[in-house]
User: Fold this.
Amino acid sequence: MKKLRLGVIGTCCRGKLADWAHQKDNGVEIVAGADIYNEQLQSFINRYKEKGSSVNGYLDYREMIEKEALDGVIITSPDFCHEEHATFALKNKVAVYLEKPIAITLEGADNILQTAMDNKTRLMLGHNMRYMDFVLKMREIIQSGMIGEVKAIWCRHFVSYGGDAYFRDWHADRAKTGSLLLQKGAHDIDVIHWLANSRTTRVSGIGSLSVYGNLPRRANEKLDALSIEEIWGKHHWPPEEQKDFSPFVNNEDINMVNLQLANGVHASYMQCHYTPDSCRNYTVIGTRGRIENYGDYGENCRIQVWTRRIDRFDIEGDITYRMPEPGEGHGGADPVIINSFIDMLRGTEVPNSTPQAARYAVAAGIMGAKSIRNNSMPYDVPALSEELENFDFSLNK
Ligand SMILES: NC(=O)c1ccc[n+]([C@@H]2O[C@H](COP(=O)([O-])OP(=O)(O)OC[C@H]3O[C@@H](n4cnc5c(N)ncnc54)[C@H](O)[C@@H]3O)[C@@H](O)[C@H]2O)c1
Assistant:
């Protein structure tokens, strides 16, 4: 089996995803990493030393790409770096695993797809929800025909840790993310598209910076001065008593969009960053029934199916599907998506997560944010060129 040499750009936080790819027994090794912060690079090098491996560290990702003869690179840098990092690797014929959202502009996303196609270099997107048990099960139920023809999908997304995760650093700044409809919502809009087997063609929305906008902010951009307890924790409650937010807060903390899909399905995505609890809750309504999930993984995660008329709320439904014990890394989805990337590199797999789908999720988010910021004006979502639409970015079909 061909040995694979992999690198990582953005070595810490989400960069730890790359650790799943370090499979020496399987002939796959992380051999190098790049990060603009020396401290992060050192912690990456030490992490691998503890595993008995030696990796090279680079402060300039271009140097790593040019020197390391990589078969692939896992890009886990912040959203606003994705276009630059991915296109550089692709132009150098290095296959790319790129975290969601694919980019923060439509032009950026299309540029990444075009560059991969022009250079005939493999590209995969990190939409790990396409590897989560509850999403796969919901898709299987829909495809079995149990609820008839899908007509509507509604997703409510409660993010209790929204203030901590998205309003303390670059995530809060629309110049660095576009909107939390991309940064966080790209996952769910993509799942809506996948469950409906379609994509958004027209979107309108409402939303605002409704709670975190007027709360105390830090003076400096870097988080270094804060302890972990000051950055994150269940003690950060209630929302309007929080402080230490980023100096640059202008993204909405509540977003609600209506999505018209190409195949006639109507969808809604609602996201709130100051709820007491956390949950992604989807309901899919078909011509012969309805399904709904409670929880996205863990003990309480289940999917209910209703296929008879009842005329009142019946919490049990007709069938309950419970999900298997969750594994590590987003309920076990992270190691599976990384294995899918490895298999794609070896030519044996076409991943669940495609660049076209990632682009359409981001495109709906971008146009949704534009609508929210323009008095709920509805906007069309531009389609890809036919060539990009039909290109197989895994090069394996
Ligand atoms: N799929 C998922 O479930 C999931 C989960 C978390 C994060 N993400 C994605 O992963 C990405 C990183 O998120 P994060 O929260 O870890 O971000 P982060 O700010 O913690 O940065 C990640 C790493 O990139 C490094 N970095 C920052 N700027 C860089 C640059 N210009 N060049 C190279 N390295 C740089 C940081 O030092 C850090 O090591 C985001 O795009 C995010 O959307 C995906």
Observations:
- Residues 9-15, 34-37, 40, 61, 76-79, 81, 99-100, 126, 128, 183, 330 surround nicotinamide-adenine-dinucleotide (CB under 6 Å).
